[in-house]
């Protein structure tokens, strides 16, 4: 992994030129209990096959997670999380040697083991607040980190949705966490920000975040948005089945691109790739 130029990042030979196009992070939940696809990819063979399919469909990186972060999800032990994710990362590194891999974890020890197994990036839904060792660990590893906004934990977050100033508080949190990352020794080119759609937010607050995304761009860091199949889309569509929220997800992805998102974390890569190609042509002038 190396830095190419200001405003870009190179992972496994793939250059991420921020602002030039939208990049897709394919979700690979190797869990039995994730809200949308729990149990579908919790065998090694199924996980590898899904990653290959997402890569072929246009994913620029794959996000491997062993801990479900759906509302009310129980915390997983360190050993159980390692047992879930490490064989998958090792297999993907063998099967897809040039594809960047992200580890979706809040545990510094998992980050260390995952990077040793071949991961290139840490995606921490707690903004590196759950494990006080995370920022120093990532700095030592020399890899990028995505810092997400959350209140509470997956068990408590949906009762913590009262904000005096939603956007102001989110910007303040993300600014503080990025500053903490810098103080820990993480390079500025290695910090991504995520407003945490669906995490301690109501359906209407999620819509407000999508409308106000350009405010986060003032922080000057790549912006990751994860709205895929989430419950606020189900609320709007009266659709309880997450797998039937593909086109609602497409609308939110289009809105995110219009608002300046750099990376979209998605389940349905092929469909969202088409959304990105057209939306990038409209709002970024890409072709």
Automatic annotation (TrEMBL):
It holds the Pfam family Pterin_bind. It comes from the Bacteria. Residues 22-277 form the Pterin-binding domain. InterPro entries: DHP_synth-like, DHP_synth_dom, Dihydropteroate_synth-like_sf, Pterin-binding_dom. One of its GO terms (biological process) is folic acid biosynthetic process. Keywords: Folate biosynthesis, Magnesium, Metal-binding, Transferase. Pathway: Cofactor biosynthesis; tetrahydrofolate biosynthesis; 7,8-dihydrofolate from 2-amino-4-hydroxy-6-hydroxymethyl-7,8-dihydropteridine diphosphate and 4-aminobenzoate: step 1/2. CDD domains: DHPS. One of its GO terms (molecular function) is dihydropteroate synthase activity. It catalyses: (7,8-dihydropterin-6-yl)methyl diphosphate + 4-aminobenzoate = 7,8-dihydropteroate + diphosphate. GO terms for cellular component: cytosol. Catalyzes the condensation of para-aminobenzoate (pABA) with 6-hydroxymethyl-7,8-dihydropterin diphosphate (DHPt-PP) to form 7,8-dihydropteroate (H2Pte), the immediate precursor of folate derivatives. Belongs to the DHPS family. This is Dihydropteroate synthase. It comes from Pegethrix bostrychoides GSE-TBD4-15B.
């Amino acid at each position: 992994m190396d830095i190419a130029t200001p405003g870009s990042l190179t992972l496994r030979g793939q250059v991420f030129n921020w602002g030039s196009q939208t990049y897709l992070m394919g979700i690979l939940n190797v869990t039995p209990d994730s809200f949308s696809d729990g149990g579908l990819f919790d065998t090694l063979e199924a996980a590898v096959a899904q990653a290959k399919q997402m890569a072929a469909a246009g994913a620029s990186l794959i996000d491997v997670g062993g801990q479900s972060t759906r509302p009310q999800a129980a915390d997983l032990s360190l050993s159980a999380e390692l047992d879930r994710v490490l064989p998958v990362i090792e297999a993907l590194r063998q099967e897809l040697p040039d594809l960047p891999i992200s580890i979706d974890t809040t545990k510094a020890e998992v980050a260390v083991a995952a990077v040793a197994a071949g991961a290139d990036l840490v995606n921490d839904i707690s903004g590196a607040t759950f494990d006080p060792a995370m920022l120093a660990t990532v700095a030592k590893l020399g890899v990028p980190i995505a810092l997400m906004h959350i209140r509470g934990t997956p068990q408590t977050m949906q009762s913590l949705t009262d904000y005096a100033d939603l956007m102001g508080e989110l910007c303040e949190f993300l600014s503080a966490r990025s500053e903490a990352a810098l103080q820990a020794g993480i390079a500025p080119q290695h910090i991504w920000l995520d407003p945490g759609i669906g995490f301690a937010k109501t359906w209407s607050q999620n819509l407000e975040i999508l409308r106000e995304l350009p405010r986060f761009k003032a922080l000057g860091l790549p912006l990751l948005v994860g709205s895929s199949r989430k419950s606020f889309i189900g609320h709007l569509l009266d659709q309880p089945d997450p797998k039937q929220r593909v086109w609602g997800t497409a609308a939110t992805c289009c809105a995110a691109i219009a608002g300046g998102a750099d990376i979209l974390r998605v389940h349905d890569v092929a469909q969202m790739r088409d959304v990105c190609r057209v939306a990038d042509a409209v709002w970024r002038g890409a072709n």
